[in-house]
Structure formats: C-alpha cells, structure tokens
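Chain A, query sequence.
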Amino acid sequence: MPVVVNSVIDWDQAAHAAREQGGYLATITSPAENSFIFGLIQDPKYWNGVYGPILGGYQPPGSTEPGGGWTWVTGEPWDYANWSGGQPDNGDNPSEDGLTFLNGGVWNDKRTNDASFVSYIVERDATTFDLSRDFSILRNPNGPWSYGWKSILAGEFTLLTVPRSYFSGPALTEDWVLANNQVPVVMCNVSSNTFDNGQAYFPPGTVAVSAGFDGWPQNYCVVRFTAPSSGAYRLENGIESRLYGPASKETDFHVLLNGVQIHGTNLPPNSKSTYANEIQLSTGDVVDFICGRGPSGVFDTGLKISARLTPTVCTPHKAKAAAQIVNGFVVGATLTDLGCGYTNPPAVLIKGGGGSGAVAQAVISNGVVVAIQILNAGFSYENAPTILIASPPFVPKVGIKVRRIEVNQEVVLGWKYVLETSTNSLDWTATGPAFVAEDESLSTEFDVDAVGRFFRLRVVP
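Chain A, predicted structure.
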C-alpha cells in the first residue's frame, strides 16, 4: 500500500514508519509484481520530481559498491532487479544504500538519510483483514472490502463509484462517495497527521462513514467484507460518534451476516461502542457494517468505524447455546459458542427449567454448529432450561482411581509387631501403635493419600 507523507522523508525514516504500521517496506521479486506495484503509484502525489516511493531493498554495511550485497528487508532472495540504466551507481557520497522507484518503474539507489521522498510502500502479511489498514481508493471492490450503500438493511448493495483525494487541514483524506459532494461517504485519514476542526477529530488511520442525504434512497452507508476463504473468523468492531460536542447526534449501526442482523445498536451522541464475535464464514459470505441516519433521520450523523477480521485456528471444543422460552414453551436457542471440530451433528439434550418434552437438533457447517433447531417445544417450562451439546469426536478414555488400599498381614500369634509404611523403601513411618497379634491373619485398610506405596512388618520387644 502506498503511503504519502506531508513533508519529505528518507529511507531510514520510511523503514521505521512501515514497522510501526505492522508491516515493512515493500519487496519486489518478479516483473509481474514490479508492474503491479508501479501501477499503484501513478498519481503525482506519490512523486517528488523524478523520485518515486521508497522500496524495501538496501545494501548492508561493508557490501561491495555499487552492486554488491543488495537484499530485501524481509531476507527474501535478491533474484530479480529492475535497475535504471547505469544504476546502481553509488553516485552520492558516502554511499547510496537504499532502494527507490524512478519514472518508468525502474529502480535507483539513494542514501538512506537522503530526505528527498514524499512516499513509501508498505507491505503486510495479510493474516488479518483490517478496514483502516487496507483502505484504498484505487479500486472498489478493494480485495475483500467493498464500499457502498443500501436503501433497506437486507436490500441490494450498490457500490460507490467516485473516489476522491484531498487535504482536510493537515491530513490527507481519501474517500468513496456517491458523486462529487454527494453522500454516502466512506473516508479515511491516510496521512500521519490528525484532523481536528473543533467538532470532528480524526487521528491517522480513522475511517468514517455517513449515510445519504435526507429523502434520498441511500438510507444506509455500507462497508462490506467478503470472505476470501472458508473457516472461523474473529470479528472485532468499534464505532464512535463521527462528531463531538453539540454537533454529535444519535446514530444507528448494524452488522449483518449474509443479510441477517447479528448485532445492532443506536449509538448515543458523544459515545463509542465495541462488538466482537467468533463467526463461521464460507468463501463468498458477506459481513456488512452499516451506518444509518439515526432516529433523527439526519444524514450528517455518521460514525467513525474500525473493523478487523482474523482467521482463527480451530481448537476442538463443544458448542454452547441458551434456550429461549415463551409461555412455557422452548421456542428457540441462541448459540453463544459455535464450538469447533465437529464432523457430524452432535447430540442435543434439553434439561431442567421445570418443564419437559423439548427436543432439538444441531446443524453444522465447516466443523462448527451454526444452528439449533427446535423439533418439539415441550411444555410447562418455568425458567429457561439448560441446553447440553455433545463434544466433537474424541477417543474415549478409561481412568482408574484407587481411594483405599487393604494390607493383609500373616503373623505369629502372640508376637508384638508394628506396621510401617514408606514412599521410597528407605524412610519408614509407623502406621499406628505396636500391637500383639491375636490372630494369624490380619487386614487393615488405609486411604491411599495417607500412606506410602511400601509396607513392612517389624517385630518389636
């Protein structure tokens, strides 16, 4: 992702900034990759004369000049290069050890402390999908993210088609809008500066959304995530009033999974809220983050929004659900944990609550429980019964626990003995006082926690 700075920057500073953003300066290992990345930086804002964005190639100290030792910040093999004619030339004392773009997509070497650049390119390992980090006006859809609008919550999704780039005070802002100066809008502060005009406060990376004008069909602004692969995802979402102070207004917010609401709230003025969930997605499933106009119906309510979806590793465990009762009948079940590792629908048992007769079955998809279907509502339930869902497949085990042991003793009638125990057969302790044998066969029981594993009889005077 190309990043523009408001003043000039050098290679060392860009490398540090990329790490702070959770990434690294971009690496290029093939002609196709070079062509793709160069295609992202055609806008003049990324260029300072002939100097384009900073890349992740560098020369370690001690390398043979000008062309020896070049490497990538990630340690990837330096198997491809696209130097401009006569480059690298180490033409600026003391040495040119950082990689940058020149016009035409070719490369140049520059001093790592030469502040002649206005942009750099960040690359990240895409294990997490982050709305702010991934935001771009180069295309819509943009990878798994799309920016658009709806007239009704479960209605048709329409893409916003007009991208813009402009400065809001010191902050470079990029957005998608319905048309120039027409909302809905999905915007992002893509700079390293904060915008604050007394009623809007947008730190770097802030994404904000607003619905359409009053009376227009664009009742909802929508950010859509389309799952690139099947599996479990950790969804983390935060919202905050777009404006603060007297200008702040109540705004409605919704999260829909394939058109079905899984979360919704009316956010009061000057406030914020968070939502998190573990969800199961199949390839192509969509999660919509939706901002309305609020109960006042004013388009400029809006929200600041964050959204992250992270594929998670399945740790097999049982699903959990809570029963819903109405007038003594079990009418539904809410999954509170989808579980993981199921190969077949697990058994479901409904117990307690003062009633009887309720029967349910589980529905699974991609190894998790996605629904509990009530087959029989039962009757006379006074409280919500407990729903027990069987665990995923596991190997049955048998455990044996011994609580007491019996020690049998064969002794000589009339002799005096003491019975001793030991944990190591070296150190012995009497289990009780000495006794005179009144029978030739004796039996004594002990709690296993009270004695050692070894026993002996000792004749005493």
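The chain has a mean pLDDT of 90. Helices lie at 11-20, 31-39, 131-134.
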